[in-house]
């Protein structure tokens, strides 16, 4: 997209009309998408219409199709479900119904349709598009529309957004609603865990997913379940014996509970359903355990959308409008989706076809093929689940094959650190290694606060916030001698460092120290874990998603309070050091009017413009404001300064309040994303470590002195990659403790457009049409 085209973004929609509808089962985050479609549509100069009650509203017309205004989507962001309603529609399946729908659109001059729903809804949209010209000629023959109207609406553009809690649509990494459904499930699993431990019970939890086991699979990874039943991968024929053996093994290892997760569509190898009642009866009959079944049902569809789903919905909504307005009669109907953290456009029917292929493969009992078609991220989840749940740790070790790896936390606490420690320890034990845990970071390594960890040492750690090992910001340099002595004393042959910016700088110091101390020549890997998300070499760090959700929940409550009192502006300070990730993403997710960050310098003129913007906003029906400020965005324009400025300038128009969120952002139980991400990072790090130790084995001892034996494991776009810490040096701004380039800065224009600022879409991301097959090959994603 050239510079001229960008300026055209503001005029791209002039003379065009877009209709937006939600169809099929509802999903949290649909409202965020609807809000973004409406606001970005209006921003480009287009008229935007709501279609109430899905396709039924399209067929019935009349009052069901109403023009939307900027204010009509206010306060929608934090609501679950879909505000414009959704209905299953028989009429639209018949040509007669589609004829009426076409008539309703043509009469209003609408030639762009944005459909938010599952694969059924999107297939319906494609049929509608392919019949469009026939439908128009029929309407013209019947005298229902004029020749002029038919010419004006000669073709229909369609863009789909996938809203489905099952995450069952191929081509998209995450569908709108999946993350929120996981939040609901995990809240319940956490609650059930406490009561199960009190009574030593076994719980069988049934989650949604008729044809797709994604929710069940990620839940079992996030809560360390004993077993999961999913439709894509039926258990072996003797699964009853296997399951009972596993449950009793878990008990003998000292666990007081068992958790079994079942997807509602779970089947055995012959396609016979495996129900939660079947499993309960089996456990009671064979083992005599006190067993309870909980069927989660529609709880999973309800509640507030998570921060991830709000940002996903908003980003997809923006991209959908762009795709519609750039559409020509020759572009295929596309679906806007997310791959890694990039927005992509994929041909709608290709995605629908692959999704149908999965169902066919499962019906034909070709389960391996079904797994492959689900994509890499699904396969990776399954591999890690199998490793952590199915393998029994070896009892005897062959001499010389055992290596000693130490695990530690460095920096400030972040939710998900414990999940990373757990999977690192357990994967290490499964590989036959001896695993040590170090308390209190590098300081503990120097003081010898080190102990051996067994399998049950980390039991139940996945869902616990903070850092159980203890974590400190101390760097290793000044205690190299003691550290070297302990590496020798405990025979440490590899280090897994889980932490924030200090974990990375500590890694750099260890590399430097190798020149003086041979003992430091052991492989190490850094797993980024910090709420600030400021570790070079990774787009995400463990703990940032949890902090984001905490900020989001607080902002929702504050907005609610402001909506009650009217004419009130809240200034909220977030953490993050110099990194503006939390402020920006929370701004997007909570619908803030502005987010001040260090990476985008601002002047007094910008502050004045923001105040003026809020003064104008108070004249509308939306009489409240929300402004986020990153804690170190500017040393002179402090939170107090901004609060005083707003208070003075807003006199008589609005009053201001300030709120510093502080350390609550580091606490709390980790979100499903952080649990899953940390678990996979831990497993991947330990696999790398085993290989590196074998590679560095010389004359009976470990000697690792190459740059690639000290790495940061990070998520880059679509893949998990190991990057030597020394290579990341050039990409780091050490003074401000942030990476020089940060992917999320390109989301800032979206934040401003959705808050009604007149800006160019100059730096917004732009997705091109890709094909699914290409997306499947390549590196491993998470």
From TrEMBL:
Activity regulation details: Allosterically activated by ADP, AMP, or fructose 2,6-bisphosphate, and allosterically inhibited by ATP or citrate.
Query: Which terms are listed as keywords in the entry?
Result: Acetylation, Allosteric enzyme, ATP-binding, Cytoplasm, Glycolysis, Glycoprotein, Hydroxylation, Kinase, Magnesium, Metal-binding, Nucleotide-binding, Phosphoprotein, Transferase
- Active site residues per record: 166 (proton acceptor)
Binding positions (Mg(2+)): 119
The Swiss-Prot or TrEMBL record annotates one GO molecular function as: identical protein binding
Q: Where would I find the Phosphofructokinase domain in this sequence?
A: 18-323, 405-688
Q: Which CDD domains match?
A: Eukaryotic_PFK (cd00764)
Kindly state which reaction or reactions the protein catalyses: beta-D-fructose 6-phosphate + ATP = beta-D-fructose 1,6-bisphosphate + ADP + H(+)
Q: Which GO terms describe its biological process?
A: canonical glycolysis; fructose 1,6-bisphosphate metabolic process; fructose 6-phosphate metabolic process; glucose homeostasis; glycogen catabolic process; glycolysis from storage polysaccharide through glucose-1-phosphate; muscle cell cellular homeostasis; positive regulation of insulin secretion
- Is Ribonucleoprotein tagged as a keyword? no
This protein's GO cellular component annotations are:
6-phosphofructokinase complex; apical plasma membrane; nucleus; sperm principal piece
Q: Which Gene3D superfamilies match?
A: 3.40.50.450, Phosphofructokinase domain
Q: Can you tell which superkingdom this protein's organism belongs to?
A: Eukaryota
Q: Where is this region: C-terminal regulatory PFK domain 2?
A: 404-782
Note the InterPro entries from the entry.
Answer: 6-Pfructokinase_euk, ATP_PFK, PFK_vert-type, Phosphofructokinase_CS, Phosphofructokinase_dom, PKF_sf
Q: Where is this region: N-terminal catalytic PFK domain 1?
A: 1-390
What the entry lists under Pfam families is as follows:
PFK
Pathway connected to this protein: Carbohydrate degradation; glycolysis; D-glyceraldehyde 3-phosphate and glycerone phosphate from D-glucose: step 3/4
List the cofactors. Answer: Mg(2+)
The record's function comment reads: Catalyzes the phosphorylation of D-fructose 6-phosphate to fructose 1,6-bisphosphate by ATP, the first committing step of glycolysis.
Q: Which family does it belong to?
A: Belongs to the phosphofructokinase type A (PFKA) family. ATP-dependent PFK group I subfamily. Eukaryotic two domain clade "E" sub-subfamily. Belongs to the phosphofructokinase type A (PFKA) family. ATP-dependent PFK group I subfamily. Eukaryotic two domain clade 'E' sub-subfamily.
Please give the subunit comment from the record: Homo- and heterotetramers. Phosphofructokinase (PFK) enzyme functions as a tetramer composed of different combinations of 3 types of subunits, called PFKM (M), PFKL (L) and PFKP (P). The composition of the PFK tetramer differs according to the tissue type it is present in. The kinetic and regulatory properties of the tetrameric enzyme are dependent on the subunit composition, hence can vary across tissues. Interacts (via C-terminus) with HK1 (via N-terminal spermatogenic cell-specific region).
PANTHER family assigned: ATP-DEPENDENT 6-PHOSPHOFRUCTOKINASE, MUSCLE TYPE, PHOSPHOFRUCTOKINASE
| This protein's name | ATP-dependent 6-phosphofructokinase
Task: List the lineage, top down.
Answer: Eukaryota, Metazoa, Chordata, Craniata, Vertebrata
């Amino acid at each position: 997209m050239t510079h001229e085209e960008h300026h055209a973004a503001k005029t791209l929609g002039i003379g065009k009309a877009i209709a937006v509808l939600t169809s099929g089962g509802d999903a949290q985050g649909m409202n965020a998408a609807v809000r973004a479609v409406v606001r970005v549509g209006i921003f480009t100069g287009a008229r935007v219409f709501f279609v109430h009650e899905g396709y039924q509203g399209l067929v019935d017309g009349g009052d069901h199709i109403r023009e939307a205004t900027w204010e009509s989507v206010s306060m929608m962001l934090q609501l679950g479900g879909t505000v414009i309603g959704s209905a299953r529609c028989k009429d639209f399946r018949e040509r007669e119904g589609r004829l009426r729908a076409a008539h309703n659109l043509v009469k209003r001059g609408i030639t762009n349709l944005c459909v938010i729903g599952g694969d059924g809804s999107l297939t319906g949209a494609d049929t509608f598009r392919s019949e469009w010209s026939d439908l128009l000629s029929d309407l013209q023959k019947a005298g229902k529309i004029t020749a002029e109207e038919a010419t004006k609406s000669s073709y229909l553009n369609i863009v789909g957004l996938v809203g489905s809690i099952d995450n069952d649509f191929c081509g998209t990494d995450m569908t709108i609603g999946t993350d929120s459904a996981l939040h609901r499930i995990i809240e319940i699993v956490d609650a059930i865990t406490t009561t199960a431990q009190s009574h030593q019970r076994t719980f069988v939890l049934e989650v949604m997913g008729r044809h797709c086991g994604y929710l069940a699979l990620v839940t079992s990874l996030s809560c360390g379940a004993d077993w999961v039943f999913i439709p894509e991968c039926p258990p072996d024929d003797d699964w009853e014996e296997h399951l009972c053996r596993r449950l009793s093994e878990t008990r003998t290892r000292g666990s007081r509970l068992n958790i079994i997760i079942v997807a509602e569509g779970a089947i055995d190898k012959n396609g016979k359903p495996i129900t939660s009642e079947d499993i309960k009866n089996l456990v009671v009959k064979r083992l005599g355990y006190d067993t309870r079944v909980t069927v989660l049902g529609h709880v999973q569809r309800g509640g507030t959308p998570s921060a991830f789903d709000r940002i996903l919905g908003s980003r997809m909504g923006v991209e959908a409008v762009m795709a519609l307005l750039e559409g020509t009669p020759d572009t295929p109907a596309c679906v806007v989706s997310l791959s890694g953290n990039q927005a992509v456009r994929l041909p709608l029917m290709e995605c629908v076809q692959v999704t149908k292929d999965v169902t066919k493969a499962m019906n034909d009992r070709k389960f391996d093929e079904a797994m492959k078609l689900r994509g890499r991220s699904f396969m990776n989840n399954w591999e890690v689940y199998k490793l952590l749940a199915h393998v029994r740790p070896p009892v005897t070790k062959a001499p010389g094959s055992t290596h000693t790896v130490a695990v530690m936390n460095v920096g400030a606490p972040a939710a998900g650190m414990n999940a990373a420690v757990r999977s690192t320890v357990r994967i290490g034990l499964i590989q036959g290694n001896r695993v040590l845990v170090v308390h209190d970071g590098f300081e503990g390594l120097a003081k010898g606060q080190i102990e051996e960890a067994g399998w049950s040492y980390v039991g139940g750690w996945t869902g616990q916030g903070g850092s159980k090992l203890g974590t400190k910001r101390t760097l290793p340099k000044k205690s190299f001698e003691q550290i070297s002595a302990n590496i020798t004393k405990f025979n440490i042959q590899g280090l897994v460092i889980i932490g924030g910016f200090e974990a990375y700088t500590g890694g750099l110091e260890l590399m430097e120290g190798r020149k003086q101390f041979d003992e430091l020549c052991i492989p190490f890997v850094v797993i980024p874990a910090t709420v600030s998300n400021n570790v070079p070499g990774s787009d995400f760090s463990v703990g940032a998603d949890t902090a984001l959700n905490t900020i989001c929940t607080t902002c929702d409550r504050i907005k609610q309070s402001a909506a009650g009192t009217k004419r009130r502006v809240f200034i909220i300070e977030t953490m993050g050091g110099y990194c503006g990730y939390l402020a920006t993403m929370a701004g997007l997710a909570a619908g803030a009017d502005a987010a001040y960050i260090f990476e985008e310098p601002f002047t007094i003129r910008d502050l004045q413009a923001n105040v003026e913007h809020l003064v104008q906003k108070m004249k509308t029906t939306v009489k409240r404001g929300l402004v986020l400020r990153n804690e170190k965005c500017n040393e002179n324009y402090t939170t107090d300064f901004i609060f005083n400025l707003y208070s003075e300038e807003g006199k008589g128009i609005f009053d201001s309040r300030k709120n510093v969120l502080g350390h609550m952002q580091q606490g709390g139980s980790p979100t499903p994303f952080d649990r899953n991400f940390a678990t996979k990072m831990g497993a991947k790090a330990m696999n790398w470590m085993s290989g590196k130790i074998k590679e560095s084995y010389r004359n009976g001892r470990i000697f690792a002195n190459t740059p690639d034996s000290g790495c940061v494991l990070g998520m880059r776009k679509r893949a998990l990659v190991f990057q030597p810490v020394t290579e990341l040096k050039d990409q780091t701004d050490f003074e401000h403790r942030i990476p020089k380039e940060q992917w999320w800065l390109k989301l800032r224009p979206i934040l401003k457009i959705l808050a009604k600022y007149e800006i160019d879409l100059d730096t917004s991301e732009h997705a091109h049409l890709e094909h699914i097959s290409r997306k499947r090959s390549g590196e491993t994603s998470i």
